[in-house]
Design a protein that fits this description.
The complex is a heterodimer.
Chain A: E1 3-14, E2 20-31, E3 35-39, H1 46-53, E4 61-66, E5 69-70, H2 75-79, E6 82-85, H3 97-107, H4 112-125, H5 141-153, E7 159-163, H6 171-186, E8 190-195, H7 198-204, E9 207-212, E10 215-220, H8 222-228, E11 232-237, H9 241-254, E12 260-262, E13 265-270, H10 273-286, E14 293-297, H11 301-309, H12 321-332
Parallel strand pairs in A: 3-8, 3-9, 6-7, 7-8
Antiparallel strand pairs in A: 1-2, 1-4, 4-5, 9-10, 11-13, 11-14, 12-13
Helix pairs in contact in A: 3-4, 3-5, 9-10
Chain B: E1 4-6, E2 15-17, H1 19-43, H2 45-66, H3 78-94, H4 96-107, H5 110-115, H6 123-149, H7 158-185, H8 189-205, H9 218-226, H10 228-241, H11 246-273
Antiparallel strand pairs in B: 1-2
Classes of the chains: A alpha/beta, B mainly alpha.
The complex binds adenosine-5'-triphosphate and magnesium ion (MG).
C-alpha cells in the first residue's frame, strides 16, 4: 500500500475572536504517482489542509503522514521531500526570477553549481528564460505563478502540493499549467492540488475529495462522483420568462427529480437520458413551447456539488447560518447524492 | 560528532544528520537570507536614502536650531556632545526596518514558503537582523561623515573611537531582534511601524542623546539615566570624547549582551509558533 499521503481524522480549530473549525475530522489517502484533488468552496478548509501537510501548521488532533513520515514529528525530513506552491505566489518582489530560484535551491542545501543549472533549466521550462534576470516587480500575475511553481520544483520534490494553482490565470495559462502538472505526474511525482474549479479536478485528478465546512462530503474518482448522480442532465433554454415557468412544470411531470431554473434555462436531472429527452420534446411541443436550446449532457461536478451540499460552489458563503445548516445535513448524506433534491428556483 | 550528508541525485533535498551539518547549514541558510535582504536593500536605494535623510535633518536641527540653547557642560561643545547621540538614535530608528521587513515577508506569504523548506528555523530572523546590521554600518559611516562636515571632532584615539562605533552597532543588532519580535506580532507592515514608534520614542528622546540629563525634570531623570539608549550614548561619548569610561561601558555592554541573550531565542520561538 504505497500511499504518498495518509491523512487520518485531522482536526484544526482556529481560536480568535471567533472560533473557526477549519478541519473537522478529515481523512484521505493518496497513492504514489497520482494526482489527488481537494475540491471545495471558499473557506472549506483546503488551504488549512495543505498547510498542515506541508508542516507549516500543526493539527490539533489526528495524524498526517507524507511518504510514511509524520508531518509534525519528522517535519524536517518531510520538508526535504516536498514542494509547495501556495495559494498566493510566495516570491520575493525585489529579486529576479533567477535569484528567487537560487535562493530556494540554496535553502534546500543543494550545491551552488547544481542550483545554477537547475534554475536555468526551470526558467526555460516555464517560459521565463527571457525574464529570468528581471526583478519580479516587472512580472505579470501569470509569470509570478509560474515562477512560484518553478520554485516549488527546484529540489525535485517527490510530493508536490499546489494550492489553487490556476486561480487568476487566463484560459491559455491555465491550460499550460495543466500540461506542466500532467508532465510532472508523468515523471512520477505525486501531486495534491486544491481547486475551486470542477473542470480542473475533472481533468487532472485521479481521485478527489470534496470538502465543505471542514468535512469530506464526498470522495472517489471524478467519474464515480458523476455516476453517483446516476443520471444525465437535460438543459432547456427559452425565449421568455413565461415559457420558463411552463417548461419547469412540463419537465417536473417527467420526474422523479425537480427541475432547477437558472435565468432562462431550465435544468432537470433525468434517469434515462434519451427516453426522457424524447418525452420532454413531445410534451414541450404539445404545450406549444419552442426552446432556443435543448441539450442533454453528463452531470458536471458542479451539479454534483449542488446535489451534495444544497448550494453551488460559487456561493461564497460561510457567514450565513443557512449554509452551515445545509452542510450539516449534506454531511450525513455523503455518498448518497441521489437522495438529494435539487431545489426549483436556482440561485444564479 | 558524526556527519553524514547524502545528496540524492534524483529527488528531494539532501538530509543532514549530526550536529556539525546542522550548524553549517544554519550558517549557510542565514547567509542566504542575508544576501537576499541585502540585494533588496540595493534594489530600493530610496530606503537607504530615507534612513539617512531623517538623521541628517536631526543633525542640522539640533546643531543649528536648538543647539545654541543647550549647554552640555564639562567644556564639551554641543556638536561633539550631539553626534554620539545621533548615531545611537539613528540605528535605534533603523531597527524599525527589521520589524517592517519581517511583517512584509509574512504579509506576502514568503515566510509560508520558508516554513515549508528544510532550512534552519532561526535563519529567517538571523538573516534579517544581519542584513540590517550591514545597513547600519553604511548608515553610521555616512553619519560620521556628516558629523565631520558640521564640526564634529572626536578627541580620543582611533581605537576607543572604533570601540564606541562597534558598541553602537552591536547595540543596534540587539535592538533588531527586539523589533523582529514586533514584526512577527504585527498583522501587516504598517501596523509594525505604528507599533514600533511608542517604544522608540521614549527610549530615544527621554535619553541623554540630545539634552543633558540635568536639564530634565526629576521624575523623568531616573528613567532617562538608566534606560539602555542613554547608557549606550553615555558610554560612546566617553569612548569618543574622553571622560570616565569603564563604568558606562560595562553597563552598556551588559545591556547589549543581556538583550542578545534574551531576545533572539524569544524571537525564534515566536517565529516557530506564529500561525
Ligand atoms: N490563521 C487563521 N486564523 C483564523 N482563522 C483561519 C485561519 N486560517 C484559516 N482560517 C479559517 O478557517 C477556515 C478555512 O480556511 P481555509 O483557508 O483553509 O479555506 P480554503 O478552502 O482554502 O478557502 P479559499 O478557497 O478561500 O482559499 C475559514 O473559515 C478561515 O476563515
Ligand atoms: Mg485557500
Amino acid at each position: 500500500m504505497p500511499y504518498a499521503i495518509e491523512v487520518t481524522d485531522v482536526k484544526k480549530t482556529f481560536s480568535g475572536k471567533q472560533e473557526v473549525r477549519a478541519l473537522d475530522g478529515v481523512s484521505f489517502n493518496v497513492e504514489e504517482g497520482t494526482v489527488f484533488g481537494l475540491l471545495g468552496p471558499n473557506g472549506s478548509g483546503k488551504t488549512t489542509a495543505v498547510r498542515i501537510l506541508t508542516t507549516i501548521l500543526n493539527a490539533d488532533s489526528g495524524s498526517a503522514l507524507v511518504l510514511g513520515h509524520d508531518v509534525a514529528k519528522q517535519a524536517d525530513l518531510v520538508r526535504s521531500l516536498i514542494g509547495l506552491a501556495g495559494q498566493y505566489a510566495a516570491v520575493d518582489e525585489n529579486l529576479t526570477g533567477r535569484e528567487n530560484l537560487t535562493m530556494v535551491g540554496r535553502l534546500n542545501h543543494l550545491p551552488k553549481s547544481y542550483v545554477a543549472g537547475r534554475a536555468k533549466e526551470l526558467l526555460e521550462q516555464f517560459d521565463l528564460a527571457d525574464s529570468g534576470n528581471r526583478t519580479l516587480k516587472t512580472y505579470s500575475g501569470g509569470m509570478r505563478r509560474r515562477l512560484d511553481l518553478a520554485a516549488a520544483l527546484v529540489a525535485r520534490p517527490t510530493v508536490l502540493f499546489l494550492d489553487e494553482p490556476t486561480t487568476g490565470l487566463d484560459p491559455q495559462s491555465r491550460n499550460d499549467m495543466w500540461e506542466v502538472i500532467e508532465s510532472l505526474v508523468g515523471e512520477g511525482t505525486t501531486v495534491l492540488l486544491t481547486t475551486q474549479y470542477l473542470e480542473e479536478a475533472d481533468r487532472l485528478a485521479n481521485t478527489l475529495s470534496v470538502l465543505d465546512h471542514g468535512r469530506v462530503i464526498a470522495e472517489g474518482t471524478p467519474a464515480q462522483l458523476k455516476s453517483d448522480l446516476g443520471a444525465t442532465v437535460l438543459e432547456v433554454g427559452l425565449h421568455d420568462n413565461d415559457d420558463v415557468a411552463r417548461t419547469a412544470s412540463v419537465l417536473n411531470a417527467i420526474g422523479p427529480h425537480a427541475p432547477n431554473i437558472s435565468g432562462r434555462v431550465v435544468e432537470v436531472t433525468v434517469d434515462n437520458g434519451p427516453v426522457d429527452a424524447m418525452e420532454a420534446l413531445r410534451s414541450l411541443d404539445q404545450a406549444g413551447i419552442t426552446p432556443t436550446t435543448f441539450t442533454l449532457r453528463e452531470p458536471s461536478l458542479d451539479d454534483a456539488f449542488l446535489a451534495l451540499t444544497g448550494h453551488r460552489t460559487e456561493d461564497g458563503d460561510g457567514e450565513d447560518g443557512s449554509a452551515a445548516k445545509g452542510s450539516g445535513g449534506a454531511g450525513d448524506r455523503a455518498g448518497q447524492p441521489e437522495s438529494a433534491t435539487v431545489p426549483v428556483g436556482g440561485n444564479r | 560528532m558524526t556527519t553524514t550528508i547524502s545528496i540524492p541525485t534524483v529527488t528531494g533535498a539532501p538530509l543532514a544528520t549530526g550536529v556539525g551539518a546542522r550548524v553549517r547549514w544554519a550558517i549557510s541558510d542565514t547567509l542566504t537570507v542575508t544576501k537576499r535582504n541585502l540585494i533588496a536593500i540595493t534594489r530600493i536605494p530610496e530606503a537607504l536614502f530615507f534612513s539617512t535623510v531623517q538623521p541628517i535633518m536631526f543633525v542640522l536641527l539640533f546643531r543649528y536650531v536648538f543647539g545654541g540653547a543647550i549647554h552640555p557642560g564639562h567644556g564639551i561643545n554641543y556638536v561633539n556632545y550631539l553626534m554620539p547621540g545621533i548615531f545611537v538614535q539613528t540605528v535605534a530608528f533603523g531597527a524599525i526596518q527589521t520589524s517592517i521587513g519581517l511583517a512584509e515577508d509574512l504579509q506576502k506569504g514568503l515566510i509560508e514558503r520558508f516554513r515549508a523548506l528544510p532550512m534552519a528555523r532561526s535563519a529567517v530572523l538571523a538573516g534579517r537582523t544581519t542584513a540590517d546590521l550591514c545597513r547600519n554600518v553604511m548608515v553610521v559611516i555616512v553619519m560620521t561623515g556628516v558629523g565631520f562636515l558640521v564640526g564634529y571632532r572626536p578627541t580620543t584615539g582611533v581605537l576607543p573611537y572604533l570601540a564606541g562605533t562597534g558598541l553602537i552597532l552591536l547595540f543596534a543588532y540587539a535592538l533588531s531582534w527586539g523589533f523582529a519580535l514586533i514584526g512577527l506580532s504585527a498583522p501587516n507592515s504598517e501596523t509594525a511601524q505604528v507599533m514600533s514608534f511608542p517604544l522608540l520614542f521614549p527610549l530615544t528622546f527621554a535619553s541623554s542623546a540630545f539634552v543633558p540629563l540635568a536639564d530634565m525634570p526629576s521624575w523623568l531623570r531616573g528613567f532617562a539615566t538608566y534606560q539602555p539608549v542613554s547608557v549606550v550614548v553615555t558610554a560612546c561619548r566617553s569612548l569618543m570624547l574622553g571622560g570616565p569610561t569603564s563604568h558606562w561601558v560595562v553597563q552598556a555592554v551588559a545591556w547589549t549582551v543581556g538583550l542578545l541573550i534574551v531576545l533572539p531565542p524569544f524571537a525564534v520561538w515566536r517565529y516557530r509558533t506564529r500561525t
